[in-house]
């Protein structure tokens, strides 16, 4: 997906950034004041891992695991909430066996799968039958949409199928050309289409990052939340944090900066400079908590 980040070995400034909204400032105060009741939840691609052209090449920022490991023991819980299969995020993130991340939870496929670092176990329901049916029809639907060189299909463990247009000659035109036929294909088999940054994902309904986040907040008993994301799929998680705020639970919304998803940046309390900025924020927060 084309962007390449340079990583600095310079120590991050330890001063926390100031959120641009009153709700964000209140949430950061609550997180710093009561870290033992805070849930830190983060998307993977574009948030902990730089966006790349081939999704299989995505890897967590080299400082992501050390930053998470420094922060995790100081808060109630840390979770990665991703549309990827949980085991793929664990492998690409380098989370398994990482010292300090013994209580990390990875919620994969928008919460349909769960991997717990403490036990190393993965739990997941049976795949939705519509995913296999969609995969079988997909070549015909793509061919009928016209000549779209560079469009690629990503299998997501039998639980979803993603069609990427970032490497097409005209990524946005390919995205728009495929949106309607893929939506119709998904609907025929009881699935929905989740649009993202030059990607259309066909997956079962009923689970999204907001649902997963709310369930994890209830499970952990967290009384404050930090959520960081970068894409359209993170909007439900942002909405979940806004719902928690209305119920008196402080929440800090962080956008892993991108000009491609303006709505996320507009709703965020903090916009940081991609995965490097997310890592810097995690390190700053860990340092602030002592």
Report on the structure:
The chain has about 290 residues and is an alpha/beta fold. About 35% of the residues lie in helices and about 20% in strands. It contains 9 helices and 12 strands. It has helices at about 20-35, 65-70, 85-95, 130-145, 170-190, 210-220, 235-245, 260-265, 275-290; strands spanning about 40, 75-80, 105-110, 115, 120-125, 150-155, 160-165, 190-195, 200-205, 225-230, 250-255, 270. An 8-stranded mixed sheet has the order 5-4-3-2-1-10-11-12, sandwiched between helices. Strands 6-7-9-8 form a 4-stranded antiparallel sheet, covered by helices on one side. The model is unreliable at about 1-10 (pLDDT under 50).
Secondary-structure element order, N to C: HEHEHEEEHEEHEEHEHEHEH
Q: Flag low-confidence runs.
A: 1-9
Number of strands: 12
Could you estimate the helical fraction of the residues in percent?
A: 25-40%
Shape from CA axes? globular
Evaluate the radius of gyration. Answer: 19 Å
Average residue pLDDT? 91
The tally of helices reads 9
The amount of beta strand, in percent, is 15-25%
Largest sheet: 8 strands, mixed
């Amino acid at each position: 997906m084309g962007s390449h980040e340079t990583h600095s070995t310079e120590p991050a400034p330890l001063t926390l950034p100031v959120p641009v909204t009153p709700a964000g400032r209140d949430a950061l105060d609550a997180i710093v004041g009561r870290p033992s009741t805070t849930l830190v939840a983060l998307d993977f691609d574009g948030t902990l891992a730089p966006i790349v052209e081939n999704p299989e090449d995505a890897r967590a920022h080299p400082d992501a695991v050390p930053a998470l490991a420094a922060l995790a023991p100081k808060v109630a819980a840390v979770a990665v909430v991703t549309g990827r299969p949980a085991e793929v995020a664990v492998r690409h993130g380098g989370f398994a066996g990482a010292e300090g991340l013994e209580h990390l939870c990875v919620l994969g496929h928008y919460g349909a799968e769960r991997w717990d670092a403490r036990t190393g176990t993965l739990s997941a329901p049976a795949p939705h039958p519509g995913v296999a049916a969609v995969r079988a029809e997909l070549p015909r639907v793509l061919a009928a949409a016209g000549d779209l060189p560079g469009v690629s299909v990503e299998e997501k463990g039998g639980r979803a199928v993603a069609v990427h247009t970032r490497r097409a000659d005209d990524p946005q035109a390919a995205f728009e050309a495929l949106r309607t036929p893929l939506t119709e294909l998904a609907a025929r088999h009881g699935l929905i289409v989740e649009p993202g940054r030059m990607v259309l994902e066909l997956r079962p309904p009923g689970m999204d990052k907001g649902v997963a986040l709310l369930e994890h907040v209830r499970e952990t008993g967290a009384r404050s939340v930090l959520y960081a994301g970068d894409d359209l799929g993170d909007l439900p998680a942002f909405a979940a944090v806004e719902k928690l705020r209305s119920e008196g639970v402080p929440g800090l919304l962080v956008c892993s900066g991108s000009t491609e998803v303006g709505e996320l940046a507009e709703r965020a309390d903090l916009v940081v400079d991609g995965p490097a900025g997310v890592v810097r924020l995690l390190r700053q927060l860990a340092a602030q908590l002592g």
